[in-house]
Amino acid sequence: MNFDINTLVYILEITVGGLLVGIGVHFVPVGGAPAAMAQATGIGTGTVQLAAGSGLTGLLSAGLMMSVTDNIWLIIATGAVGAMIMIDATMLTGSWIYAYAVGTPFASAKVNYDPFTGFSQPPYIGPGTVGQGIPTVCYVSGTIGAAMGGIGGAMIYYPLVQVNNNPAMSAIFAIGIFLVSAVLASWNIQGTIEGFHDPKFKKWPGAFKACAVASIILAIVAVVITPIGGV
Q1: CA-closest candidate to residue 55, choices 123, 137, 172, 148
Q2: Fewer beta carbons within 10 Å, N or C terminal of the chain?
Q3: What pLDDT was estimated at residue 229?
Q4: How buried is 112 (Cβ within 10 angstroms: 0-12 exposed, 13-18 middle, 19+ buried)?
Q5: CA–CA separation, 144 vs 162, rounded Å?
Q6: pLDDT value of position 193
Q7: Which pLDDT tens digit goes with each residue over 186-231?
Q8: What pLDDT, on the 0 to 100 scale, is given for residue 176?
Q9: pLDDT digits (tens, 9 = 90+) for 78-94
Q10: Measured between alpha carbons, how far is residue 73 from residues 88, 122, 154, 167 in Å?
Q11: DSSP class of residue 69?
Q12: SS3 for 119?
């Protein structure tokens, strides 16, 4: 492949996409095992699964839109909407389980007052827990993170298809980029996080640097060195 302006654009798109997937998960309320036991606020699964999940959903949504149009803005928007629906549905379902199956209130131990509703949080936190359920601010933050992950997934998949003209192989390589960014984000968060109001959110620059380096290397490999599946 000739190294021209399009090559630089493709590398930039993949790099930004990897960054969005890695940073976006810092907005999503990741509760892990403690959340599964109603002892922490967030979704009861790990950072890697949520980061990859939002990116993969964005990829699938973008792929569907690419079957009917080449408009990059529509493709990116579709990726964002698809990922937001996935994460929002997960948070909503988790909230139903917390409220109606487990019987725990929606409360956060990271803030004294919900930034959106102004409701006091400490009176509703169970002893020995760090919050329960998915409060309002977590839901808003998670939606933002999902949008970032979905846009990132679309921005990775679109240039790979343009380079390789092979949707299947492009999707496989895109999944690899998601997982790299997801693992780096997971190491940076180290456990649970509620969203942009969580003190751990301030650690995002570390993930930004790591994901930037990894995404640039992977973008060069995908676009310049070995355009996988290229014809």
Answers
A1: 148
A2: C
A3: 46
A4: exposed
A5: 28
A6: 92
A7: 899 988 899 999 999 999 999 999 999 999 999 998 887 655 544 4
A8: 87
A9: 999 999 999 999 999 98
A10: 22, 43, 10, 19
A11: -
A12: coil
